[in-house]
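Dear colleagues,

As part of the handover before I leave the project, I'm documenting each prediction I ran so the next person doesn't have to rerun anything. This entry is a single chain, and its sequence is reproduced below.
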Amino acid sequence: MQLKLRRVKNAVKERKLRRTPLIATALIVITVALSIVIVEGGFGVLPPNQIRELGRTILINTYNPWNTTLTSYSLNSVSAIIWDYRGIDTLIETTVLFASVVGLSIIFQGIKPKPLGAGKGMSIIAKTTVKLVILLTVAASLSIAVHGHITPGGGFQGGSILAIIASLTIVAYSIGVIFRSGVSLDVLLKIRYLALLTLLLTAITPIVLGLVLNTRAYVLQNMAKEDSVVSMPATFLNTPLAGSIFFFNLIEYIVVSTSIVFIIVLFTLSSKILGSKGE
């Protein structure tokens, strides 16, 4: 018996040794072929090496306190683009995410959580480890969202990280733990609706301020413009706040995290219910 096992292991090793040169040769051929295609222009027009004038203007004025009518006071140029210079695009993208969650809730509207038991979950070591990871995840995600206008990150990235907690809890404990903590599908939807309403109110806040001050203002306006003195707070305790960008990142943090958690919980429930019906 042992002799047969040795023969099988030796045969497997020989096959691997035979495949290694073939794999290396294939990678070399692919690399050379792609290089030729790129050099000959097979992929069409490639992006220019130089920054376009629009991109140069945004990079120069993202944080430029000497040009108060064009700057956003955001040290993170990406956040400045998605929430200031192209804020309407991001608002529409958030609406698309909202519509996708609404569509899922309609498709799975017949799925409702049944009374769930305690659930054994994993071992006590795994559960304790998950508790520590959850604390670190909350701190990291909140930091990424709050500092999204200063360092790389933002509300979407922070919300996506925060949603990992739902998956960890379901795997280590059980889906019942989430519902017993008060996080139901209805609660998640209500939080999302409230966050989206806050997002819209923040977007029209400059208009309200313009009416109060009897001056011109624009939707999603962040800082003062040449024809408008309305401005969101640029700093807080000598720290760049980037005006509405800071608030938009926080709101997006809530919207994205609740949306992903809603999808995770909904799919978990649907798999359990469909699995029980199949049995």
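The chain has a mean pLDDT of 82. The longest helix spans residues 2-39.

All the best with the project,
I.
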